[in-house]
Amino acid sequence: MPGIKTIIALSFVLAVGFLLVILSCALWKVYYPLLVVATYVIAPLPNWICSRVSNPDDFVESGSSSAVLDLGRFLTGFFVVMGIALPIVLAHSNLIQIGAMVMSVVGGLLIYGTIISFGMFFQEDQEF
Question: Above 80 in pLDDT, residue 14?
Fold first, then answer.
């Protein structure tokens, strides 16, 4: 069971991630990097939905259950890669500066890492 120090540390890292993304927009007065926040907030949803849809109570792994889990993992990976690639593409097309790209990518990775860490620390153990 995680303690209050874990919650405070994860909240601090999440705040730093959001600060970096917001600063990447505000310092250069171009607000395209805010799209990164949307991709990292949406990223865990397919994995969560697909894990709820698949039936974890089966003793035998069925092909459709495994396919649903694989689809959720694929879509989650797609959103994470899109969150990294979007600022790179925006910088390549000269819509944002290189500094904004770096701040946006680092901030986005901190945001997604914090979301995953919250999920790992506060995951409930399922008992039979």
Answer: yes
126 domain residue, yes or no? no
pTM value surpassing 0.85: no
How many distinct structural domains can be found in the chain?
1
The answer to whether residue 100 sits within a structural domain is yes
pLDDT in tens, 38-94: 898 898 899 889 888 876 665 555 556 788 899 999 999 999 999 999 999 999 999
Establish if 101 belongs to a structural domain: yes
> Is 21 within 8 Å of 111 (Cβ atoms)?
yes
Q: What are phi and psi of 36, to 5 degrees?
A: -65, -40
Domain span at residue 79 reads: 4-121
d(CA 2, CA 99): 36
DSSP state letters, 30-58: --GGGHHHHHHHHTHHHHHHHHHHS-TT-
